[in-house]
Each structure stands twice: as C-alpha cells, then as structure tokens.
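Researcher: Last one for today. Full complex below.
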Amino acid sequence: MAAAIALLVASLAAGCGSGGDGAERGGTIVDAEDQAPAIINPLVADGATVAAQRVVSNVLQNLLTNDETGAYVPQLAQRVPAGDDVATGPLRVTFRLRPEARWSDGEPVTPRDVVFTWRTMTDDDNQIASRTGWDEIRAITPGTTASGGDCPPATCFTVAFKGDYAPWKDVFSVAGGYYVLPEHVLKGKDFDTAWNTGGIVGSGPFTLERFQPGVRAVLAGDPDWWGSEDAGGGPFLDRIVVNFLDSPAATLTALRQGEAQMASFLPDPDLIDRARGVAGMTVDQVPSLFFEHVVINTEAPPMDDPAVRRALAYAIDRDQIVDVLLQDSVPVLQSLLRPSQLGYRPTFERYSHDPQRAIGILEDDGWVRGSDGIFAKDGRRLEIPMSTLSGDELRRTEVRLMSEQAREAGIAVRLRSRSPDQLFGNDLGQGEFTTALLAFGGGVDPSPTALLASDQIPSEENGFSGQNVYRWSDAEVDRLLRSSDRELDEDARVQQLGRIQDILADEVPLIPLYAQPNTIAHVDALQGVKANPTQAEAFWNSGEWSLAGG
Amino acid sequence: MRGRGLARRVGWAGWTGVAVLVVIALACLVGPELSPYGPDEQDLAARNQGPGWEHPFGTASLGEDVMTQVLVAGRISLAIGFGTALVATLVGAALGLLAGWRGGWVDGALSRFAELFLIVPAFVVLIVLSLTFERVGVAEVILILAVLSWPPLFRLSRASALSTRETAHVEAARAAGAGGGRILWRHLLPAATPEVASFAALAVGVAILAESALSFLSLGIDPDGDPSWGTLLIGAPDTIEDRPWLTVFPGLAVVLTVLAAALVGDAVRAALDPRSPGARAPAGERPSS
Amino acid sequence: MSAAAYAGRRLLAAVPLLLVVSVAAYALLYRAADPEARLRRIPGVRAEDVERLVRQQGLDQPWYEGYWQWLTGFVRGDWGVSTANRGVDAIEPIADALPATVELMLLATVLSAVLALVLGVVSARRPHGPGDTSITALTHLGFATPTFLVGVLLQLAAIRMRDDGWAILPFLAGVVVMLCSLGAALRGGRIGRAAFAAGLVVVALSVALWGRLGGDGQVVFYTQQRFSFGSEGDVLSVDHLQHLVLPVLTLALVNVAVWTRFQRASMIDALRADHVTAARARGIPEWRITTRHALRASLAPLVTLVALDLGIMFSGAVVTESVFSWPGMGRLLRDSALSRDVNVAMGIVMIGAVAVVVANLVADLLYARLDPRVDLGNRRR
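Model: Here's the assembly. Have a good evening.
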C-alpha cells in the first residue's frame, strides 16, 4: 500500500516536471564536458567536435531534428515534408517554415536564410568540415512547391536536388550536424572566423552569452523565444553553463562534488557505474547511432579469406563482451545498421558464439591446429592483430577479452595500440592494419555508401581519405548502394538495404558489437532530460528542461 | 676498518633504502616466475575482486591478478629508472669532467650544449620527444628521460672538476709528470663521485616518477607490451573509489622505490663525503609535476 | 664587473641559444602530430572534404618554410595565427592561460618555500633528532608520490569533506601542533606546554564537532577549473580560493622535500659558523641565534633555488593542470602540440625558454648579493 502511494506520488511529480504547467522557472545548471572545442562553430573543420555541437544545438536550429526515438520531427519547419511536398526524378522537396520562427534578435527566419546556408556550406573559400548532401542541391527556390505550384515566399520554398537523393532529411536535420544560418547576421563576413568565439545568433531557446575557449560556454535562456509555447512555456532555465574539463574522470569528479549537475559520458562502464552510485543522480542511456565494431581489412592476410572472417565472427562471444564490460546496458548489435534506422535487418544473429563451428570452418578451409592450440596454414600461424586507440581502456579490455575467447577456437588475437594520429592519420587510410576495434556513425539516414562503396576504398584518387577502410568491394553491393541512395520509396529502399545486410553477414568485412550508448547523468531535480540516440544529442529538447526547487 | 666506518656512515636510513630496493628488485625479477598467474591471464569468475588469499593484491576488470601485474610492471619501471640514471650519469659525468678538465673551447661548447637542454622547460621536451617516436618502448623512454637528466649531472661534475683541477694534490701530481688521463682518472673522477653518485641514486626515483607522469599523459610507454607502474596507474582517477586496490598497490610500489632511492642517495653522499654537514639532496629536475 | 653589464652580457649570450631552441622545437612540433588525422576524425567527413581542407589550411607546406615565416614574424612581434582558431593571433590563448599558470605556480612556489624554510630550520636545530627524522620522512613521502596521484587523492578528500564535513582539517592541524610541541612540552618549556594544550583543545573540539562542520553537500574545496561560473574572473573571491587550495597544495609538495634538504644543510653550516659559536658563548638565547645570526647566512641556496624555479613557472605544470582542469599553459601546450597548433606551442616554448634564461640570471645575481664570496665576473656556471 505504502509502495503504491509512493509510486503514485512519484508519477505525479514526474508528470509535473516534464515541461508541463508545473515546471518551475529559473535556475542554472552546470554541464561538464570532457573535451574542449577550440572554437565554437561546429560547421567549420576546427570546430567540428561533439562538445561544440552540444553547446550550439541550444542556440542554432535546423528545419528538422530527431527526437528521443530517433524519428524525424519538425523544428523550424511546420512538418516533415511528405506526400505532395516530395517529388522525384530529380528530387524536389518543399519545406514550409513556421511563420512565428524568429532569430533571437527578432528577425523572422525566412527561406532566404536557407538559401544563404546552402551558399555558405558550398562556398569553396569556407573551411566547412563536411558538405554531405549540400553539394547534391541544385537550387533552392522560395515561393514554389515541388509540383511547380505557388506558395507564400516568406515561409515556403522548394529544394531541388541534382538527382534523387534518399538521405535528404539529414541535410536539414540537427542530427545531420547541420543548422540554418541567419543571413542578416553573417552576410559579408568570413564564415571561417566569424563565429569562432561567440557572436552566434540562432533561433533556439538559448543564446550564447559567452564562450571562453578551454574553460566554459554560458548559455542564457531566451525569454522571448518563438518556440516557447510548444515547449510548454520554456525555456525554464535561466542558464546552462557548459564547463570544459580535461578528462571523463574529471567530469565524474565534478558531478560527485556537485560542481556540475549534468554530464554526458562516453561508454566507460567504470564511470557510468560510479555515476549511478552518486546519490540524487539519474543516469539515462539510449543506444546511439555510433556503433562499435571490429573493422576487418579484407585485403590483409589472413583476413582476405572469408572463411577466416566467418570463423572469427563465430569465435567471438559478443554477448559476453556486452554482459561483462558494459553491464548489459546495451543490446548486441546484429547489423551494420542500427535498430532505430530505416531498414535494419539483424543478419548477424546467426553468429552466436560457437567455437566448435569456428573450428569446423577453419578445418574445412585447410587450417591445422598446432601444438600451441593455434591454427596454422602453410606455415603461418592464425594470428590476428587488432588495433585500437592507446588511451582507450574499455576498448583495450574488449580486445583482450576477445583474444581470450578466440583462443578457444584456435585463433590468436593480438592487441595493437595506436595513437589517434597513427590510426586515423595513417593505418586506416593506408590499409596498414589487419583488424581494428572502432566506432563509426553519423547521420540518421541508413545509407552505408560512404562505408561500403568500392570507390570509397582509400586510394590515390581520394587522397587515402575514403571511408571504406574494410577495403571490401562487391559488385552487387555497389549496385544496390547506388540505387538505394536514389530510392525514395521507403519499402523498396528497405528491400535493397536488407539485401546489402544479407551480403555483409555472408562476407563479414566487419563484425558489429553494439551500438554505443549515449549516456546522460543528471541530478534528479533536473527534469525533462531525454537521452537522444542521434547527433541532435543531449540538449535537443533543452527548451523543455526545468529545475525543481531551482 | 675502513669498510666498517663506511657502513656506519651510510646509516640505518641508507641501509633501509638499500634493503627496500633489493627486496623490490628481487620480487620483480623472481615473483612473476613463481606466481601461479600470468600477468594477462583472465579469470572471468574472479573479476574485480578486492585483496584476498587467492589474489593478495586483488584482481582487475577481467580477473587478472594485480600482484603479478605489479611485479611484471616493476621490471619495466625499474629498468627505466636505473637505465635512465645510468645513461644520464655516464653521459653527464663524462662530458662534465671533460669540460672541467680541458676548459677552453671544449668547456664553452659543451656548456652551451648542456644549456640548450636546460633552458627548455622539462616537460616541453618530454611532450615533443615522445610525440616524435613512432613507438615508445623502454629504450625510447630511457632516452627521453636521460635527455632531461644529464645536464644537471654535467654541471655537477664539471664544477667539481674545475675546483679539483686547482687543488694542491693535482698540482703536485702534474709536477710529478702525471699524464692528463691519469689526473682525470685518479683525481678528478674520485672527487666528483660523491655528488654524482648521490644524484644518480636520486635520478632513479625521479625517472620512475617521470615515467608515471608520461603514462598519465598518454605519452608514455607503449601499452601493448608489459605494463609499467605508470601504465597501471593510468586508470586511477576512474577506479580509485570503487576499486582502490588497482591504485594502491602500484602506487605503493612507486612510492617505496622512489623513497628508497632518495634515502640511498642521501646515504651515499654522507658516506663518501664525510665532511658534508648533512646529506644535501641536489635539485633534481621534476618534469612530472 | 657591474651587475647590469653582467646581465646584459648574459642575455646577449642567450640569443643564439634561443635561436637553436626555436629551430629544434619548431621542426619537432611540426612533425609531431599528423594534421590530417584531426581532419579525418570529423564526424561525417568525406575524402573530398579532407583533401580540400588540407589544401585550404596549407598543411602540405614543408616545415622550414613554416619556420621561416614564423621566425620573421616573431622577431617583429607577430606570433602568427592559431591553427586551431584562425580568428585569433597565437598570443591570445597564451595571454588567457598565462595568468592562470603564473598564479598557480607562484602560490605553490611561495608555499613550498615557506614550508621548506620552516621545516629546514627546525630540522637543522637537532640533526638526526626525532623532529628531523619525521620531517625528512614526510617531505620525502610527498616527493615520492606521483603528482597526479596526489591530486586525485586530494580530490577524493574534497569529496569526502563535502559529504561528511571538514572537521578533519582542524583535527589534523591540532595533531600536528601537538606532535611538534611534544618534545618542548616534555622538556618543560612553558610555550611548549601551552602549544601542546592548545593543540589538544583543537583536536578535542574537532572530534566533538565531527559531522557538524559543513557536510551535506556543501563544497569545501573545488576540484575542477579556476572559478565557478558565478564568480568568473574574481581573483579575490572565496570561490577562487576554494578552487586554488588543492592544485596549489599538489604542486607545492613537489618541491618541499628537495628545498627542505637544502635549507637544512645550509642552516647546519650556518649554525656551525664562528660568529654563531661566539654568540652562543655570549649566552644569547638559541631562538635568537637561529633567527638573527644564522638564518640570513643560510638563505642563499634556497633563494637561488626558488629563483631558478620561477623560470619554469611560465610553462605550466601539465599534470596538475590536467588533473584539476586548470586552464593554464601546460594544458595549452599539450593540446596545441597534439593538434599541431605550432604557432601557439612555439609561443609557449619561447616564453618558457626566455623565462628560464632570465630566472637563471636572477638566481646568479641574488646568489652574488647573498654570498659576498662570489664575484659575478668569475662565477662559472
């Protein structure tokens, strides 16, 4: 009975806090980040950091964003374009801006701002970090719809792409790492330097009050925010202070000490465990779009042999990795795609831990077990170096655990630590690795083209920067990638993506382990926080946050 | 008779230092061979256990025996400590005596060279050098740390040689027709020995501390080989609250070794140079702050 | 030779050294980090983006061209532009970090000098006595513990104090006072007894008030950064003091052991000097002999050491700064070296090198003043 009452009280309290009428106004929360962006503009190369994106996502907005389930939701747009607003051959998409949308200086957000953003992103003089999608746009026309009709030019415009481009939503979503820029503020300025240390004018619930590189960013709630009504009257917080600390351990110490009320962690089980142990602290986790996986260089012997790759997949006990090292906080990932993405098909489910099967595959392939228990063929031991980042304790532990598991199946997995510079600057691009434990990820759109297309294999032509570091090519997959990127019919695209995932499970150029969790630890009093699986990140709904008793 | 006097002058603190060093070194050399566990041997049933009978120092995240790890790591750390002290002493003392003995342009050039290393703050050198190597092993760490440790030794032995050169003993020897090499070997070297030996002993400890700082900054020894005490301590900020044994034991190993080395340094000086009023610790570079 | 002429000659002689240092540092820094690695890690970056950025940022330039540009600018007072933040001159992040570092290191140096002075003098009064032995043991312990471990332990202590109150502080102070005055009290000195009693009272009081001083989440010492958001830039605030205590303590421990040994040795020397013996024969009380006659003569080595240490001050203490997220020169250098922000890193290296040159000079001048036996022209270093 008492428990039932307590539950009732708790649920009432929660109901009040989640941005409803009961939300209290005022208060400052301090967020601790473990990295310090050198500059605060996340669109240019030197600012493209998660920390900068987190700060700026309180200030800048895009036409769309993604919610806590990963679904696209409108932000500056009235709705996610669909039906008549999307026409193909080539792709044209009509967006309708919310008429009440305003920049924090009171100017309305207009289609001209979107045009300006497109020009800024594709201007050859600007050191834009990534232009994915923006360079697929042919024209942006205010006052015209996708079908060629007229619409109010103050709020309505059509984006015409060069061809059919299925991942178009990511270009216009915060989760793609992009934001709409104010033309009246930035026009005539050098975008590479204009917003490095402040001056950012956005349309979000907070304004950037101050940015001190290496120390902190201060965000102030905008009382005149145009979106207030949708956020239940927010922003409720006076301020969000983002402190840039030196390490993940420092963020935890700050939380422990009450020097910060909120932090978002990388998947570090020690820290997350300790955060859970702090009294009055809530830890919220959601599998993110970044996925941890074994990258296999399919050109490096012995991994050039598909049988060895399959044997390795059977030899590794992925359940045990997640169970032992991540306290079962996330499920094992069964594909290159993540469950929240369109077309996810768990094709790697077949690789449940089965050392006998791995041994069988290797024996059929002509491998013979040596006296040390490790297979060998033509005088070569079955030894697989696995590279990972030297400072990364979790990954190093994962590799050592895998090494122990693989030994049972006669495979010697050897840990090879590399500095970020070595791994990202040299090894991956030059193919100087056999396997590597890494997380990749990015937008919400499922297109795996950048990772799997054969023209993305690092080579002279692409300056060794291609991302198909698996160095794996398959004619059918190439064809499927090309067509699925142009396929705007979702069912057809799901079919094509499914086929790609089937082939991946047969060929095993990679072994997916788990989707890295996005973790937010925050004081109980901070209400309305919802961990987000996408790059829209922790602050995606900060306009709804409130501090009870603050 | 002379030996007894020496033993007494070394004092109980000095002998304690020697004893601790010997015990630690022996344990690190022999211990891992006697241990029933390998340093990387996993036992998932015994993960994250505190100290107990089975595992006196507890276990790590995959059930590895921390005691074996600490002992194996000691081999690396001690090798770095003694290796650095040895290289720095040989280079520093040789060049220092040469400079002090020959004087003139040799002295000028060598002094200038040593000054180069002294005017760049120590950890600037550490960071830049460790970023230069493709792979940092024991030898590389010794090289990096020796680069920092030799200039003070150079100064010490040069100053000693300069003053000894002018003494009546040396004048007399020279008058008696003793060659340069003989003077260097018989007079200048023995005179410099107390200061240099004492500094060298301290340098062992300083190198071990500096190694742990390098590891803490992720600039240290390649973590794939055997660990050092420094690499075992990297996780301290993460684990010290929940699993203190992962920090306490390697931490104690460092503290005891450095303490012992400092005591030996004090004692060596007191024993070899009985005129000195009290053991005087030379200013060591502390790149590890 | 006059001190001014001597100083001028020394500084002039340092110029070629600084030049060599700058070449070596530039070449090493330029090659230390791979610039493309940073670009490749940008989320969602494509091959064509990396290629374009390498071109745009001039990352394909050989190091000597970069060095020449840097040097010609540097001598004219232009330190170049920060690579990480193209909008600002390299001097700006340095100007932000310098006060933080100087403040931290200066306070730590002063604290360790004062501690070393007191402990050294106390040790020298009765060499090898119980006081000397325990001081030696404690200072050596501070010296032998890796700095980052000291920092982490102090942070843990701060967390405990926040949860359980800070009664431990007066408790420890009382215990120290009691231990120090124990000998004097046993010998029957009045002051000794009074001090012992006072210590006892403080200990008893803090035990009685255990758990009632602070606690309940009241922060006693901060563990991260230099200011809280609310008192940003206010160096005289209590908040700032709360931020300073732990890093200053961490850094101070480093030097106390070595400096105490120096002070002890020179104090023993000084106490054996003829004029001290004579004073003692005249029946002047021991404390007066110590403070009036011996102390000044014993100061030269410690003062020299402190002056030398001030030179290192300007380049920061990277380990302590990173444990406490202190926005100082050490972290700036580490970050700029790792991200190949060569202009910023070079600025720090040069400031550090010049500071060491000046500090060495100051140390020599001070030594000459304090020790009349030294003649500047002939002093060889």
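Residues 66-102 of chain B form the longest helix (37 residues). Chain B has a mean pLDDT of 81.
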